[in-house]
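Course assignment 3, question 2. Fill in each field.
Student: A.L.
Task: Predict the tertiary structure for the chain below.
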Amino acid sequence: MSQPNYIVDINKIEGLSDEEKKDLKEVVEKYAFRANDYYLGLIDWDDPNDPIRRLVVPATEELEEWGELDASMEHKYSPARGLEHKYADTSILLVSDVCGAFCRYCFRKRIFMHENQEVTRDVSEGLDYIRKHPEITNVLLTGGDPLVMATFKLEDTIRRVREIEHVKIIRIGTKMTAFNPYRVIEDESLTEMISKYSLPDKRIYVINHFNHPDEITETAEEAIQKLHNAGAIMCNQTPMIAGINDNPDTLAKLFKRLSFIGVTPYYVFQCRPTAGNKPYAVPIESGHEVFMKAFEQCSGLAKRARFAMSHATGKIEILGTDEKHIYMRYHRAAEPRDYKKFFVFKRNPEAYWLDDYEEYATMKKELQSTEV
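Answer field:
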């Protein structure tokens, strides 16, 4: 198979009935749809609960009013167009406003919905900012998906980042190894470019997004191997998504398969309370239980992921629960003073986000009143 064909019209999905297409019309008018025939070919269309189908095919439940488009308030940390700087040593460059397909639970779906001002194809302003901040040692290229870009365009950005001496790590956040592994397999210039810029003391990390073990096909494994051979360090992150990987056996299988092919499990994220995401969200405490039960089945190499939520104030790791309490701490914090914070809250089985815990809501109000 060569490069797959992309599909942006829900009516062209042969696996859906006419009635299903009609029911989804309002959904795709609000939240964009995009897929390709390689990825759709992984779906068992006889199974209405197929996880790959659920990951990429819209659901009418997305229209339920819930959450916000910018649930983690990323706009607060954007000092230059196309750049976010939330944690001292790490900045993000939003270099693409397209993905190989659109995950239905996407936390950045706002950039696919409207003419957005967040993504820019001219990264000059962001690079100027990074040059002036020597504390930045990590730069993450994301969007959208950087591997949707033509290699020569991606290389131009990577070359310019590499020219900044204090940047030691370049990360490429991508789901193309799952959505379209032929992007890697058939483009020798891509792996040559990674070999050129992934240096012994300044590595390129590829942050993959495998959400379910069925995505790790032989073709995907071939793409991963090519990236390995090119000198990229391979990691994986995934949100925990209802109906896709919120099962201990499924999550454990994903962790193990990743470890077998040399991809480090990095983060399992709490699904952000983004508009349209209610049918995909798992309550925090239920998710932690799934996470820990999956760990029971894994070797040390397969259970290196952290279960965390990307809150507006930082990445908060969910550490554990007992009969009455849940325990959390800041794994990354926007404000350095927050690194010392450790939370002990009364359990709330209906909580989907930090703000759903009464104690945190009270702390937040008290802090806001003192600031006023």
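Instructor remarks: The first strand starts at residue 6 and ends at 7. Residues 74-371 form a domain with the TIM Barrel fold (CATH 3.20.20.70).
Grade: pending
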